[in-house]
Amino acid sequence: MRGLAGKLLHLDRRVIFVLIALATLIPLLRPIGLPVRISPEVRQVYDYIESLPAGSVFLLSLDFDPASKPELYPMAVALLNHAFKRDLRVIGMTLLVTGTGMAEKVVSGVASEHGKQQGRDYAFLGYSPGGSNVIIGMGQDLAAAFPTDHYGQRTTDLPVLQGVNSLRQVNYVISLAAGTPGVESWYVYGKEKYGFELGGGVTAVIAPGLYPFLDTGQINGLIGGLRGAAEYETLIGMKGKAVAGMDAQSATHFVIIGLILICNLFYFLTRRTTIRSFGSPQGRPGSPREAGR
Amino acid sequence: MAPSVLIGAWVAAGLTLFMFSFLYKDNPFFRFGEHLYVGISMGYTIVRIYYDVMVKSLYTPVAQEGKWWFLIAALLGLLILTRFIPKVSWLSRISFAVIVGFGSGVAIPRIISSNILQQVQGTLRPILNAGQSSFGMAQFNALLILIGVITVLIYFFFSIEHKGAIQVAARIGIYFLMINFGAGFGYTVMGRMSLLIGRFDDLILFASRDYGYASLVLLGLIAFGLFLWERRSSALSDPDQDRRAAGSDPHAEG
Amino acid sequence: MTLFLRRTFPLLLTFLFGVAAALQYYIPHPLSEAALTEISVWLRIILGFAMILGIASLCHVHYAKIRTRAAGWGYSLVVYLSMLVTVAVGLWSRGQEEGTGFGWIYTYALLALQGTMFSILGFFVASAAFRAFRARSKEAAVLLVAALIVMFGRVPLGEYLIPAAGPLAGWILNVLNTAARRGILIGISLGGIATSIKIIFGIERSYLGGRD
Prior knowledge:
Chain A is α/β, with parallel strands linked by helices. Chain A is 48% helix and 12% strand. Chain C is mainly α.
């Protein structure tokens, strides 16, 4: 048994790759459709948009590049659908250069599905370099930060931006982000001084880092990862890519949980080691390197 | 279906499978895709900078609105590029000084307010308000957060020796950190799997009849290509195997 | 004079801009706000040029490989060709992506390549978890248990099998994880402020690059 355990611990990683590929592929081809429970932090975003009267200004900053598309694009689709359904004035933009094409496509695509007109019902400002500097610039003077929109039209001439001189006149900002610049930048350089309400939609990798801001109310809601996007789709009654991906998410998680449990079982079978605390014999914390011994 | 969409689907499926071929091993398909990505993203960035910065933020205000003072900003920008000319590269320091100085200055008060004062306030407020209602789950959670924040900060405070009460606090802090890392790992797994689900979703779409079974055909072609490459690589390294059999040192395989 | 321009003047500029930017936050006077607005516009232009720096560096690296016919120089040729084609198509499309060749390159090439490059990590996470994620100590065991609860409780199947898993994972995130992250956030922020002050006062000079 120990011999087998030892061999399996050194399994060719390509076998694991095949397992993961199958766990992803099969549920996508044959979905089950388990219900998605709504978490409070996602509901808070939904409830806030529901509370905004028609004509309120909603700024969606799509601060992600194609690498994060699977998680954040469905969030963008769901949020834009919700915002257009509520007849909010939507402003789209991005702080990441390679995200510009995606951002433009999703804003104009969802808008056209709702019969919304560019310039009248929504604006797409496009990209500007500088991250936090752009946020400060928009907070001071929107027209100075973006003299023209992505299509070359002067922002001061756009009907949808009438009365919106800076971020102070924006009712709600949501940043969809995978890192920096992102939600934290929008808070530190934006909401902190200019006072708009802020929500966040982030990749699962950075989501845990934003819970302190959620706890203090610095952000009023948080949509985390594909799971968060699926929850939002469920709230607005939409069956999009996020909900469709949840079965595959479940399968892959269970495969990895299984792999971790098996690996630990084999590890204890081969090592006969009892769990101890890392660090020096005196019980001081010691360095993290010692934990690997 | 428009020809551009059909061709695009085949290109996207092919490039996706090129990148996935790395899972087998590093190979020319992956290297080609990797370098293609670098080139296209550089080209895309250049075009975006040209239109979104040079034209919109510089040319239009200067040429059409008479805001000539933006040329000073352009000059500072050009000074950055002197970094490539060793004799005058010191000129770039002027621009970096402006960027870094302004960035550092603007960050200080904002970070103090957002990340320190408001975080401390958010930690203490529930505790200070706890006396106004009975001790329930919310109060327990607030107490846990307070203990967690303090013990984690104590753990990272290496200027004093961790012994006695400080040592106990630091050990509690470590456990909070381990839970945080565990939650982070769980979410990282979730995030990475989501990216995979997204790509597989596209591959499944491109495997449909509407797209001419692109994913399936290309998968077969790439697998065959890898097989031929593998055979060629082993044929080239065969002389090494003969020399090994004769007793000389083997070459390291790249 | 040369030494002043090369070394002291940049440090002086850093100090002036740093102090001015920090003080501006506390001065709501219209002139102060107008200055902030103007500088942020200038910085947008300057940072656009800074992005060219990164691209020029990459171009130089690959050009050197092609010139010296170093190993893999053919791939560097791919970089150059693809970059030039993208720029040419982009300029021809006037930077617009809707229904243009530039948009086609973005949608069917860049999206596929960049998306797949990072999705490969999913496989490696699984492989690494199997090979290395072991409860070698009490602390590692705590990490492991927390990870398993979060992975189990944040998917519909986990919540379907054990309904309490979802709220438990949520509690871990909202309370225990928040506590640790807040401690880390405060620590990093204090460190960041210390570094910013050192930069402004010229103690930290690495951003200037190279010896005088």
